[in-house]
Amino acid sequence: MEILLILLAVTVICGVVVAPAIRRYRAVRGVVQGAEAATDPVGGLGLVPPERLDVRLPGPDEELLAAVAEARRTQDWKPAADLLARTPATGDAELRWQRVQTLAGAAAQELAEAPGTGGMWLRHWRVVAPKDAGGAAVQAEFLVQQAMRNPSSQDFRMILEEARTVCAEAALLAPGDPVPYIVELGVARGMGASEAEFQSVWETVTTRAPGHMGAHLSALRYWSAKWHGSREQAESFARRAASTAPEGSLLPALPLFAVFDHLPDVQLVRGLFQSAVVGDAIEAAQYAVHHAPENHPVLPHVRHLLAWFLVRAERHAEALEQFRKVDGHIGALPWTYEPDPVATYTAYRAMAVAGARQGPV
After folding, report:
1. CA 78 → CA 14, 67, 122, 353, distances in Å?
2. pTM for the whole thing?
3. CA 20 to 30 Å from 278, out of 64, 86, 89, 222?
């Protein structure tokens, strides 16, 4: 998903790393590699075998998957339109945003697989029902995702300009809906909007959905050093959001995403994942997942990243707890930007199992 595009390799070790934590990481990995040769490396825990892991979503949403499957199979857009019509912006803004993202991503993937003809159902949707707010929001997000697939393309800015126009249409069709403005955050980031311009869009989002976790994750990317900010700006933005979050919000987990986005490509700092900065971000994320509603649409996203950090911090029993909460669906950061998400996920999951069984060392 666009709000979660952060690339990091499974192992950020290059050359000679002398930290004892990494030596233990390699030892546990050896246990995992031996376990993977067995018939059931996670036997007795009820975990999902690799061949049944679903890479499409971070957590279950059967209605959404059914609509995506129907669009792909028959090119019928009506189930998707009906689903969004039943997912109101007020009260379900997080879920509406996730569903818009997924539908747009499905159309983009189909087009990538069949240039010129793939994702035709979205084009039909917009032609047949031009006043459908859901269709306009999906098209706007589709255009942003298309542009971000190839930022060096000569059509990059043109596509984002079109996305901005469709965002405006979607906003007029659904007054009060924050989703078109969340999509516009991606447009602003891609277009290199000034801080004042970006802040203007951000204030519109927060007026409509002040605690929207998905919107905060999208805004965090603008402030990242990879785009238009810095590590300090991203962490400051995340800390401010976390400090003002109401009870039950996932915003306290935002600093964990900021830390992840600024991890070094090569780990040369001894005990990086046992440092105070990482430890504090982990603790805040654990607090967030403990107090958030179990049906929060973004909760699986946080659990996936938290599990990754806990494995790296060698807190395997705690990591295993998170894996057991999300197991079955792996369409989330950090797995989805690996060449083989299933292999990466199952390796980390197996390390959590092996480490938990081994106990503290």
Report:
1. 50, 8, 10, 43
2. 0.87
3. 222
